[in-house]
Design goal:
The chain is an alpha/beta fold. The chain has one domain: Rossmann fold (3-Layer(aba) Sandwich), CATH 3.40.50.360. It is built from 6 helices and 8 strands; from the N terminus they run E-H-E-H-E-H-H-E-H-E-E-E-E-H. Strands 1, 2, 3, 4, 5 and 6 form a 6-stranded parallel β-sheet that branches. Strands 7-8 form a two-stranded antiparallel sheet. Strand 4, helix 5 and strand 5 form a beta-alpha-beta unit. The protein is globular and about 40 Å long.
């Protein structure tokens, strides 16, 4: 079965806050009855379009109709591995007129606002449609306690609203 939603944890760092936030989105979408997959860039090993990469593209990326990127802030932007993955994908079959939701994750106070704007520009170039409610999750290091994500009420409500809007989008 092809997932309608593909959630991408946008870093190759092990046990990152991004994977914890992406898992939260996966759990909430699944609870809402949506068909979704979670793809983490942990262990991302491709630098070219190998047969394994093409199989992944055909199985996960091309069938998905909606994408959720959970992206940490790397030097005021997004991780290079995320951009590399996007560059390897068949852009016309993967992104053209598909819908995207952006979530920024940062231990700083801006929640990767700049990175989400960079990603918006990239996705618009690829003819993807980016949802206007981009959620910056700031000070994520304070939300992960003993390796577990604990969203405060305000952030939890913001996540719920963002998901609700994206489902209707």
């Amino acid at each position: 079965m092809n997932p309608e939603y593909l959630i991408i944890s946008g870093t190759n760092r092990l046990d990152s806050a991004s994977i914890k936030v992406a898992t939260e989105y996966f759990n909430r979408l699944t609870k809402a009855g949506k068909s979704c997959e979670l793809y983490s860039l942990e262990g991302f090993k491709w630098f070219q379009r190998t047969p394994d990469f093409l199989e992944l593209q055909e199985r996960l990326f091309i069938p998905a109709q909606k994408f959720i990127f959970v992206m940490p802030e790397y030097n005021g932007s997004v991780p290079g591995v995320l951009k590399l993955m996007i560059d390897l994908l068949d852009y016309k079959r993967t992104w053209y007129l598909k819908k995207v939701l952006l979530v920024g994750v940062s231990s700083g106070r801006a929640g990767n606002l700049r990175g989400m704007e960079h990603m918006t520009g990239i996705l618009h170039y690829l003819k993807a449609v980016v949802h206007p409610n981009k959620l910056p999750i700031s000070r994520v290091d304070l939300l992960v306690i003993n390796g577990v994500l604990n969203l405060d009420q305000e952030t939890s409500r913001a996540v719920d609203l963002q998901i609700e809007e994206f489902i209707a989008f």
